[in-house]
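> tool_call: predict_assembly(chains=two)
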Amino acid sequence: MSQRTSGCIPSDMTTSPFAVRMLGITKRFPGVVALDDVSLEVRRGEIHAICGENGAGKSTLMKILSGVYQPDAGVLEVDGRDTRFTGTRDAERAGIAIIHQELALVEDLPVAANVFLGRERRGPLGLLDDSSMTEECSSLFSQLDCAVDPGDRTGNLRVGDQQLVEIAKALSLDASIVVMDEPTSALTEVESTRLERTIQRLVAQGKTILYISHKMDEVFRLADRITVLRDGRHVKTVDTTATSPREITGWMVGRDIAGHDFHGSRPRGDKLLEVRRLSLPWPEHPRGYRLKEISFDLHAGEIVGIAGLMGAGRTELLEVLFGAGDDTWTGSIELRGRPVRFRHPREACEARVAMVTEDRKRLGLFPDLDVAGNVSLCALREALRNGLLSRTAEEQLAAGPVRDTGVKTPGLHATITGLSGGNQQKCIIGRWLLTKPEVLLLDDPTRGIDVGAKAELYTLIDGLCRQGLGVILTSSELPELLTLADRILVLAEGRLTAEFPRAEATEARIMEAATAG
Amino acid sequence: MTPPNDAHSRRSSEGSPAPQGNAAPRLRRTAWWGLRPAEWALVAAIVVAVLLTGIVDSNHSYFRLPWQSLTDILRNTALLGIFALGATVVIIAGGIDLSSGSMIALSGTIAATTMLALAPKEIMAFKPVGPAVVGVGVLAALLTGFLVGTLHTWLITAVRLPPFIATLATLVGLRSFARALCESCTLGVVGTKSAQINVSDPIFKAIRDNVWIPVAVFALLAVFTWLLLTRTVLGRHIHALGGNEQAARLAGIRTENVKWFAYCFGAMTAALAGLFYVANESVAAPVNQGRGHELNAIAAAVVGGCSLSGGVGTVPGTVLGAIFLRVVIDAVSKIIKTGADVYEGLIVGVVVVIAVTFSQLGALAKGGTRLLPGAIGLCAIPTLALLTGALAAMTAGRNGGIATGIGALFLLGLLRVWESRRSTT
């Protein structure tokens, strides 16, 4: 094992086979026990995956490992030594680097400046030594075998490349243990594959990787061992070869969630939407278009899935249908036989088209309004009594969808940001149900939502469809489309490259079409 | 293939809209007239400030002349409060209006120049111009508010300037425009340039002499604004816009129109306040009228609990914030007696800092954050001690200043030591 000497720990003196041991870790926050007597042993040089639903305690555990939090009880050993971190700097010194889910980069600075942020190199006069940092930075990137220009403005990089900047930062810290918190949640398939290669390269260099992920296929491709957490407790640690994705997800949710196919028996109704030769120009891009000549139909009681890599135009297509994007598209959209051209989401609402947006926090939630306020927003007029809003009427209005969508909330007055991702998403779907939509556009509705809540959302979406809604669903996860959709359209670089009835769709065929062209 | 258990069985009963209300237990519910804890704290602070002033003031004018003191504070609060309500709406909508002080000057100038143009002889001779002319002048001023609000909205939504820049431009621009207008109108109508126009119509005099008119207008406007923000769809949309603009648009809210309303409301309340300033001073003087007042309005809103990042704020908060600000300013003028207006800006600044710090006191007490951390905290101790010492020296003489400075140094030092001991244990 080619162990690298890290920071201040002389590796020749350590005899422990474990890079990290956390024993009996307990962490309490006001009102909740985030971690309850959790133990985790990570062998040197392994890829150790940590799985669990949102709120299971994965991130808290990693924040303790990286010095962000101090545990209330328990022992932390790094390289066999009892350690106590009082801050992230201590953890960095001990050779632990964490790559957070939300990247912590200064977008306006060049890449090299971000890699050395807070540890800038200085020349003889005490001035910044940019050339040395840039040089070091490019050697780090070549070590990772990827082409990122250290001089580029970081904000101009794609998310996948920004992640590489964080990894380069970890390398420049000479970290021997790298923690990755859901690194692929915002990556395309291609970028994910590249990241997996990078991770394998890091392991070959003798690094230890802690990998947090929801995605079973990745975990099973990469990890040597898997630890499952649930509700702040340690459930199991197993060798990857001795288990199956289904067993892991079962442990994560505490019950067996079988893949359940919802499509098939839904009756198909009248044609709701007819899209013909829809194109959306993109003047400042060499390709020249975001969408090109897309045609498809949507019927009542039908779920049409849209597959495609990131940047294929899924969101843009839904935005055109909802009137939320640029009003420069050509082609025709007919809603129940009448041509429509929405110039503002308001017009789409009035025509009974609803859209649940991709990024809940940024595009969907109102953090200053409570649950009732978030749900009732689009149908507030119905809560007017004598021309003024009535809180009672508003609560009555919101209570319906809150109950129907199965939102788990301490009350209608609860703050929306206190709910879990799945319950927030149900609130937003509930908001749109109050507008009595006929067409429901769902843009990656289960992103960042844990497995149990996903299953609930699938049941919800299926139920809505059975009530006669026409649903267009995009997803970054193919199994989700295969579970829910009656038909699957595949976009690749703005063009429709395939349309499969559910019976003919397989992950392989969809990926083939999505990477075509 | 087992269906996902409980979620599924719950769904099976859907479709029939069951009676509402039992979906979720209610959390606490405040009555519609209920104030938040921070607002009750403001009420308490106002009472304490009034009592303290009554005792500390060597003339004891709060006890000897309660009526006069009350009307003084009420008049000033009403004038500030009227456009602070406008600032509140703009701030909750996620914007900022820096131009209200200049809008006050422009509004007065528009009203005066309109009356001058319609009745030059009467204005020049300090004679009544008649209700019709006054009415036209007032309408012209309010219309100007609407136009300025529209200009702001256009700059922000169509030209895509940040609200700070757009209203900074009108902050400097409108006052200059008002001066130019005043000079060219007096030159055109009377023949000589003048930087101010005297307004002595009995209607304006009546407003000046009867404090209840501005107070009633302020109260009505406060009730209107409160209803608007809490009980109308537009008000909810204002909160939504300030809380998350993109989400508001994607929820089908015409965000441009909501902004249009907010900035027009901001400018028109300033225009209304401008009319009262003209009445109060019997003159439209664009050079100095309302100068710097925009910051007082923003301060009142912030002291009252508005968040400058938008989405948060209440009318009762702003009303109490305006009262508190005026009470403290009045207290200082009662205690210092002469030249107190010099300290007005200082007071507003200190009140804003203390009020906002006060709202974070919970976090400070719990020990998550420190008031005097690290090297910055160490340097802040002499800075604050110097500031208080100098202030005391100017108001209470040299020895008082030195004593206060040393006392502050000692207290802050104690706080620092206490904080570091707490964080190490």
